[in-house]
Here is the input.
Amino acid sequence: MTDFHTYCKKCNAVLTSDEKAIYMKMVDRSASEFLCLDCLSEALHCERSALEERIRYYRESGNCVLFR
Ligand SMILES: [Zn+2]
Here is the structure.
């Protein structure tokens, strides 16, 4: 992983690697622009907590290369 910051394309929040990973997982695997959890939950019409839940699930399952 490189060390530059990526920003939410909507609100310019600094993104974590989890936020980028969940965006790729749920929206576009080859995305180069991302949304933060708040904007992504809005875009997907779901709760932010549901996304956090999913991140935890993928992390714990250890199967997804996007979550390490
Ligand atoms: Zn945002």
Notes: The pocket of zinc ion is lined by residues 8, 10-11, 13, 35-36, 38-39 (CB under 6 Å).
